[in-house]
Design a protein that fits this description.
Strand order of the largest sheet: 1-2
Radius of gyration: 41 Å
Largest sheet: 2 strands, antiparallel
Helix content: 55-70%
Shape: rod-shaped
CATH superfamily of the largest domain: f41 fragment of flagellin, N-terminal domain
CATH architecture of the largest domain: Up-down Bundle
Distance between the termini: 15 Å
Number of strands: 4
CATH class of the largest domain: Mainly Alpha
Number of domains: 2
Structural class: mainly alpha
Length: 307
């Protein structure tokens, strides 16, 4: 045994004894760490996931969580786009039917603005025009998911109980959706814009009044109003088309962002399979070597020292 330096004991030095118990504990700890390393490497190789828990890579975990949050937001934007498309498709159908109603009303007006028409034919035609007015009014009361599509800020109540909206609850107020962070776009038009501002009701009612009064001049004047109303409706249709195009662009942007976020999250979270398999093999080889080395050390006895 090596002797301590002169005066070492007086300075508090003491010999260090490495017992078999210490060797066994250290060997067991080392082997357990090796087994855990193999288990982690096997999981990475089998699942393809490099960062399974925050402790695996705290910096990457932060990026993964941020990317996942952004992807969840994109799903909400997609649902918003779907809702907007439904609303716009319904409005488009209403506008088409209203355009057809205006075309029919003008045809009837032209037929009754001639000298061949009389009071009887005009009264009969008035009944059809009144039916068109009711039809257009019902279009204004179209419902979607329990709410009035053209009710504006008062979508819970019928916007057109008559052709003149309630001034205390006007069918106005823009419906908007969020399609991106801080990016909001309007969806369908409100009842004020479609049925009142276009002059549709006013033109139809003027024609009905002229027919009821057998007034050729009023009937003729109403034809110009119908033309203006029809053109105004076409302008709304054009604006609606532009809004639909804006949704298509927003949808394309969302898809591009989704791909980029998926790639970013994959780069941060997923493992390189080839590297993971190589690591697994290396850890297994190291563990086998450690087993052999520890077996040699722990099998050493007092007899081995006395040889």
């Amino acid at each position: 045994m090596r002797r301590l330096p002169e005066g070492a004991r007086s300075q508090g030095w003491c010999p260090l004894r490495i017992t078999n118990g210490i060797l066994q504990r250290e060997a067991l700890r080392s082997l357990q760490q090796g087994q855990q390393g193999i288990a982690d490497a096997r999981e990475r190789a089998s699942t393809g996931v490099r960062v399974a828990t925050p402790s695996d890579d705290p910096v990457a975990t932060s990026g993964i969580m941020e990317a996942s949050g952004s992807l969840r937001a994109l799903e909400q934007y997609r649902r918003n786009l779907s809702t907007a498309r439904t609303r716009m498709a319904m409005e488009d159908g209403v506008l088409e039917q209203m355009s057809n109603a205006l075309i029919r009303a003008r045809e009837l007006g032209v037929s009754q603005a001639t000298a061949t028409a009389d009071a009887n034919t005009r009264q009969t035609t008035k009944a059809e025009i009144d039916g068109l007015i009711d039809f257009v009014r019902e279009l204004g009361n179209t419902k979607l998911a329990g709410a009035y599509l053209f009710g504006g800020a008062y979508a819970d109540s019928e916007p057109f109980a008559t052709t003149t909206p309630d001034p205390l609850r006007p069918p106005s107020g823009q419906h908007q959706i969020e399609v991106g962070s801080g990016q909001v776009v309007p969806t369908n038009h409100d009842g004020q814009q479609i049925f009142v501002d276009t002059g549709v009701f006013a033109a139809l009612e003027r024609l009905s009044t002229g027919l009821g009064n057998n007034d050729v001049n009023e009937i003729t004047a109403s034809l110009g109003d119908l033309d203006n109303a029809f053109q105004a409706v076409q302008d709304v249709i054009g604006e609606l088309g532009a809004r639909m195009n804006a949704l298509d662009i927003a949808d394309a942007n969302i898809e591009t962002l989704d791909i980029n976020l998926q790639r970013l999250r994959s780069d941060l979270q997923d493992a390189d399979i080839q590297r993971a398999v190589t690591e697994l093999v290396a850890r297994q080889s190291t563990f086998q070597a450690a087993l052999l080395a520890n077996a040699e050390i722990l099998n050493t006895s007092l007899t081995d020292f006395l040889r």
